[in-house]
Design brief:
The complex is a heterodimer of chains A (329) and B (195). The longest helix of chain A has 23 residues. In chain A, the strands form 6 sheets. Chain A has a two-stranded antiparallel sheet. A two-stranded antiparallel ribbon of chain A has the order 2-3. Chain A has a two-stranded antiparallel ribbon with strand order 5-8. In chain A, 29% of the residues lie in helices and 12% in strands. Chain A contains 12 helices and 12 strands. By secondary structure, chain B is mainly α. The longest helix of chain B has 33 residues. The chains are: A alpha+beta (329), B mainly alpha (195). Chains A and B meet through helix 1 of A and helix 3 and helix 4 of B.
């Protein structure tokens, strides 16, 4: 009898105390935090600089983080968050990763036989890895494992490449790579040097065959001086580069990749053509042309001079009337 | 109670009668939350916190409710109820008053509500006939001992991640082997003469 009484009273008291406490210590939570969390990708990649999506949602609602801070979510997520918070989204340009190595790895494992853990960060500890080229990808796919979006592909030669459709530019692979050959760049930049080797040209030819030999042909071909050879390696300054692909055309080892060239019938860029019936003569294309290849007076139909044109495609994007025809989508 | 005997209680609870490695209590969080060092520290902090407060509260309940009415046989169920609601209460209190600590302890606070190590330390307080201060010191030290074991385990497991372990032993098996070796090492303390 006493037992039931004591236990009953105890339970009642504790229950009451908890009920009162939940009223007394009620914490008002901003319901917008939950809503923002729901529109986030929930990959918890940490690219925003916060510990996961929940922390980012809280920071955004508090105004500590940018609305466009979620890199994987991109502009869609930014717009959704902006809708919840009643703010305007500042646009963020899509960023993707690029691996600066052609990845001819299987042919280059000649330094010694590595039998350790199949992980780049472990492999590099042993004399910098078993790959002949000390600047090359190690081919143990630490970045592929790390990528939360399944955007890194293994290539048939043992290297990796980025699927730009899937890549959201979170930068997890950049941190995962011990060779530091992965970089983030704007997705609108279509031309990349797929090599990080600072070896002399002769050595590159000996061990890799698809690396940069520092011949400087690209430097001479570049119309805007965006590509420079320093320390036997060509590097593109993405801020200056207009993605015309001229460097890729002259590169003797084909280590410079032009992603747009593949969209053309012969695998080579051709100058765009202005459709006379659509052109209104606004001169916007001529003003934006980096090589001064567009002729025409105001309110008259413009024309592109094929011999001057570098086929960068800037005019195609800038034309407000969609009057410039280029490659097939 | 003399400082000396409190010191003995503390040393005994941290090393000689370490709750995890000697008494084998609280094995679940010991295995579950020892993958990373920082989460181990968070869990340890939460356990120290709850053990200390639970010791104080259950000792009072035992003395002024159970002993008074001769209901010692209800000890287990009463303690569980008291500890569970206590943790709930602490959680609400922290969330309102000390949000920083609430964030630091995070998910671990509700997780340890039904941890057997907490119940174990409170029952031990009674069977060892500790005074109120003795019970609180015992709870605190048991928590420290738990944290010690957890943090050491997390440190070892972080290294194990990189080690070349035979396929069959990967994951939980190697963790259990590690735990048993640690336990053996801790049993060496039982020969220690204190006081």
């Amino acid at each position: 009898m006493t037992a039931a009484l004591v236990l009953g009273i105890l339970g009642l008291l504790l229950g009451l105390a908890l009920a009162l406490a939940s009223k007394a210590f009620y914490v008002e939570k901003d319901e917008r935090i939950e809503k923002v969390e729901q529109v986030l990708p929930q990959a918890n990649c940490g690219a925003c600089g916060y510990a996961g999506c929940a922390a980012f949602a809280e920071a955004v609602v508090k105004g500590e983080a940018e609305i466009s801070g979620c890199i994987p979510g991109g502009s869609d997520t930014a717009a959704a968050i902006a809708g919840i918070l009643g703010k305007k989204a500042s646009s963020s340009e899509k960023v993707v990763a690029v691996v600066h190595c052609r990845g001819n790895i299987n042919a280059m494992r000649n330094r010694f036989e590595y039998q350790g853990i199949k992980d780049c960060n472990a492999a590099i500890l042993l004399h910098g890895g078993d790959v002949d080229c000390l600047y090359a990808c190690l081919g143990y796919y630490s970045c592929v494992e790390a990528c939360p979006f399944d955007a890194m592909e293994k290539t048939e030669n043992g290297g990796v490449r980025v699927d730009e459709e899937k890549c959201v530019g979170c930068g997890v692979c950049v941190d995962a790579c011990p060779k530091k050959i992965i970089e983030l760049k704007k997705a609108s930049k279509k031309v990349d040097v797929l090599c990080s080797s600072r070896d002399k040209g002769a050595d590159v030819m000996k061990i890799c065959k698809v690396g940069c030999i520092g011949c400087k042909k690209c430097e001479k071909a570049c119309p805007v001086d965006a590509i420079k050879v320093t320390g036997n390696l060509a590097q593109i300054d993405y801020d200056i580069c207009i993605s015309c692909g001229k460097c890729a055309e002259v590169c003797p080892t084909h280590v410079i990749e032009d992603k747009l060239a593949a969209l053309f019938p012969q695998g080579k860029r051709t100058p765009p053509v202005i459709e006379p019936e659509k052109c209104v003569g606004c001169t916007i294309c001529a003003k934006n042309c980096p090589s001064d290849a567009i002729r025409g007076k105001v309110k008259e139909i413009h024309e592109i001079e094929p011999e001057k044109c570098v086929a960068c495609g800037i005019c195609v994007e800038k034309c407000p009337k969609d009057a410039i025809r280029w490659h097939e989508e | 109670m003399a400082i000396g005997s409190l010191f003995i209680i503390a040393i005994s609870a941290i090393f000689i009668n370490n709750f995890v490695l000697i008494k084998f209590l609280g094995i679940c969080p010991f295995m579950g939350v020892s993958k990373k060092l920082d989460s181990a520290l968070g869990m340890g902090g939460a356990v120290i916190f709850v053990m200390t407060i639970a010791s104080a509260v259950t000792w009072t309940v035992q003395k002024y409710v159970l002993d008074k009415h001769g209901l010692q046989y209800l000890q287990t169920i009463v303690f569980i109820v008291v500890i569970a609601s206590l943790v709930q209460f602490i959680e609400m209190f922290l969330q309102k008053s000390i949000p920083d600590l609430y964030k630091a302890l995070g998910i671990f606070l509700p997780l340890i509500t039904t941890n057997c190590a907490i119940l174990g330390v409170t029952i031990m307080n009674i069977t060892e006939k500790y005074s109120f201060i003795g019970a609180v010191v015992n709870g605190l030290s048991a928590g420290i001992g738990f944290t010690l074991a957890l943090v050491m385990m997390a440190g070892i497991r972080e290294k194990l991640e990189l080690a070349d372990i035979p396929e069959a032993l990967k994951g939980v098996p190697i963790t259990f082997i590690t735990a048993s070796l640690m336990s053996l090492a801790f049993m060496g303390f039982s020969g220690m003469k204190i006081g």
